[in-house]
Specification:
The protein is mainly α. The protein has helices spanning 15-20, 27-47, 51-59, 102-128, 133-156, 162-176, 179-190, 196-203, 205-221, 228-247, 263-269, 273-278, 281-295, 306-310, 315-341, 352-380, 383-404, 409-439, 451-476, 481-497, 500-511. Belongs to the major facilitator superfamily. Organophosphate:Pi antiporter (OPA) (TC 2.A.1.4) family.
Length: 537
């Protein structure tokens, strides 16, 4: 490990780089590789979480009325009406989930996973700041794949004990907790604050791409038995773990560069490719040291504690906001396929397969939501205002979807994608750009690496809400889906209100007349780049 106060420590590159090339590439090339590998890694994470939402209607086949048939809409066999495909034993379901309290048990399965995920997040974030992120992430991905696969093996082993499925989900949740703090910390190690919202908004599409991939994989093999819907995504994340082990350079030092965190990354971003190619380690260290001397900061790589990280301005309000934002987002993640299979659309019901395919369009909207939220927050330099605005706009979108989504398939899809855009936008923004901003906040004075710890606090708190939403849905759905959408609207409104103080601070900051830049000041806008995060405690 790096000792406190050290600026550069020689590290070995990932083994995959030694196999495919013996030379060092430009830093921009490594950044592209880091973006790609971490993107694929978290696609695998989210793909492995999707099967439980897909198989709910198979495990608990609640009658949904008379099914009729007509020409498939709109892409051939993608969205088809119920033909009995993949409904083997669906009339009986799968014990113990096919009993009268089946939806409650399914909700408990979700909350078991997410509760362990949220608890594990706090521990994983702190460990991520101490351990090698590449090995830590690899271990988490392989462990996740094993226990997701074991959940599916319950089908082949004909296991009907509720405790078995509960335990498999709990252990899988602990392993899954390694993912998010690690990938955000890796991105923060390689990228500074310049256009961080847009870059991370595009990069965060992995969440929706993973949900879509997981849905399509689970649905594609569902006709062979619901167990395959878990085994295939489990195998995928194991493969992703091997990819991370071979090709993820978690730190710039791994491939011969100095740390590019915070202002260092901005400095390197200003270097042309030709100049960069000529830079030696010593020259880069000299440049980095000069930037740090200007800011009066010293560098250490020791991690901060959880309590210390909580005192960073903005961590608590964004954590609480994410609690309710993820409550809303994860309710859609785990229950939307089930809702679609139990709700008339244009006077008809869709099959389990079709419901799974149709639900992916929510995540298509989410991709655009994350990118749009990141772009707007960069332009306005107002993370809290952007997140709160999206949450408020999501309230009428969800209510309109509930009221008018049953009119026709076209209306359902349009409203679903708009809802996905508005729900996933702030969720993506807070878990990526905001977490990275706070993990490199100026109050740390450059003396600690807090990225994984801060990310764990924010996303761990959000994951408690993510556990609560699906659990409440399991109970509220028995009283009617209107109750569920009221809960979701209430959660979105509270999420927006929790950012009110930061929104006011951002508006006040923007209303101030900018002061003229002093002579020799290289980046006059840097101090105002994040007004909400630089307020006094």
């Amino acid at each position: 490990m790096t000792s406190p106060g050290s600026l550069f420590v020689a590290r070995s590159p990932p083994p995959g780089f030694l196999i495919i090339s013996g030379r060092r590439w430009r830093i921009k090339t490594y950044r592209y590789i880091v973006l790609l590998v971490t993107f694929v890694a978290y696609v695998c994470y989210h793909a492995s979480r999707k099967p439980t939402g897909i198989v709910k209607s198979v495990l608990y086949p609640e009658p949904n009325g008379q099914i009729t048939h007509h020409k498939p809409w709109p892409l051939g066999e993608v969205f088809v009406k119920d033909r009995g495909i993949a409904r083997m034993n669906e009339s009986e379901g799968w014990a113990p989930f096919n009993e009268h309290d089946g939806t409650s048990k399914l909700g408990e399965i979700d909350v078991a996973f997410l509760a362990c995920y949220s608890v594990g997040m706090y521990v994983a974030g702190h460990l991520g700041d101490k351990l090698d992120l590449r090995l830590f992430l690899t271990t988490g991905m392989i462990g996740s794949g094993v226990f997701v696969g074991l959940f599916g093996m319950g089908y082949f082993w004909e296991i009907h004990a509720f405790s078995y499925f509960l335990i498999m989900q709990m252990i899988a949740g602990l392993f899954q907790a390694t993912g998010w703090p690690s990938v955000v910390a890796v991105i923060g190690n390689w990228f500074g604050k310049r256009k961080r919202g847009l870059i991370m908004g595009v990069w965060n599409a992995h969440t929706s791409v993973g949900n879509i991939s997981g849905s399509l994989l689970a649905v594609g093999v569902l006709k062979y038995g619901w167990g395959w819907s878990f085994i295939v995504p489990g195998a995928l994340i194991i493969f992703g773990g091997l990819l991370v082990f071979l090709f993820l350079a978690a730190y710039p030092e791994d491939v011969g560069f100095t740390a590019t965190q915070g202002s260092d990354s901005d400095l390197l971003a200003e270097i042309s490719p030709d100049e960069e190619a000529q830079l030696t380690r010593e020259e880069m260290m000299s440049d980095v040291a000069s930037v740090r001397s200007l800011s009066g900061a010293s560098v250490r790589t020791t991690s901060v504690g959880l309590l210390e990280a909580c005192y960073i301005p903005g961590v608590i309000p964004f954590s609480l906001c994410l609690f309710f934002a993820k409550l809303v987002a994860y309710t859609f993640l785990y229950w939307l396929p089930f809702y679609l299979s139990q709700t008339e659309i244009g006077g008809e019901y869709v099959s389990v397969e079709s419901a799974g395919n149709l639900s992916t369009l929510f995540d298509v909207g989410g991709i655009f939501g994350g990118i749009l939220a990141g772009y707007i927050s960069d332009k306005l330099k107002a993370r809290a205002t952007t997140a709160a605005s999206f949450m408020y706009a999501a309230i009428p979108a969800m209510l309109l979807y509930r009221i008018y989504g049953s009119i026709s398939m076209n209306v359902n899809i349009a409203l679903m994608m708009v809802t996905g855009l508005l729900v996933n936008g702030p969720y993506a923004l807070i878990t990526t750009a905001v977490s990275a901003d706070l993990g490199t906040h100026s109050s740390l004075r450059g003396d600690s690496r807090a990225l994984a710890t801060v990310t764990a606090i924010i996303d761990g708190t959000g994951s408690v809400g993510a556990a609560l939403g699906p659990l409440l849905t399991g109970f509220l759905s028995t009283m009617g889906w209107n109750s569920v959408f009221v809960m979701l609207s209430l959660g979105a409104s509270i999420a927006g209100l929790l950012l009110s103080r930061l929104v006011i601070a951002e508006v006040a900051e923007r209303s101030r007349k900018p002061e003229p830049a002093s002579i020799g000041q290289k980046n006059p806008g840097a101090a105002a780049s994040q007004p909400l995060l630089s307020r006094d405690r």
